[in-house]
Amino acid sequence: MSALPPGAKGRVPACAPLLTRRFPANVWIEARPDADIPTISVPDPGSLLEVMRFLRDDPGTAFDLFLDLAAVDRSMLRAPVGPRDGNRFLLNYLLYSVKRNEHLRVRVTVPESPAVLPTVVPIWPAANWFEREVWDLMGVSFSGHPNLKRLLTHNGFVGHALRKDYEAGQRWLCTEEDLLPTQLAALTDAEEDVFETTTVNFGPSHPATHGTLRVVLRLDGERIVAAEGECGYMHRCFEKMSETHNYQQVIPFTDRLNYCSPMLNGNGYVRAVEDLLGVAVPPRAVAVRVILGEFSRIMDHLVCIGTNLVDLGALTNFWYAYQPREEIYSLIEACSGARLTISYVRIGGLAADVPENFVEWCRSLLPKIRARMADVDGLISKNRIAMKRMRGTGVVSREDAIAWGFTGPCLRASGVPFDVRKDSPYDIYGELDFDVPVMTDGDNYARYLVRMEEMRQSMRMIEQVLAKFPSGPIITDDYRVALPPKEMVYNEMEGLIYHFKLVFEGIKVPAGDIYSYTEGANGELGYSIVSDGSGSPYRIKVRPPCFPLFAAFEKMVPGGMISDAVATLGMLNIIAGELDR
Amino acid sequence: MAAKVVTLKAPELTLAQKLYLPEVFKGMVRTLGHLLRNLIPTFLDEFRALRKGWGDPLTFSKIPTIGYPEGRRGYSGRMRGRHILKEREDETLKCVACYMCQKACPADCIEIEAGEHPVLAYEKYPTKFEIDLLRCVYCGYCVDACPKDAIWMTRDYELSFFDRKSAIVGIPELREKPADTAPGGPGYGYRPYYGESPMKKAGEFEPSGLQLLPALEKRGMVISAPPPPPPPKPPAAAAPPK
Question: Looking at the predicted complex, does its ipTM rise above 0.95?
Answer without folding.
Answer: no
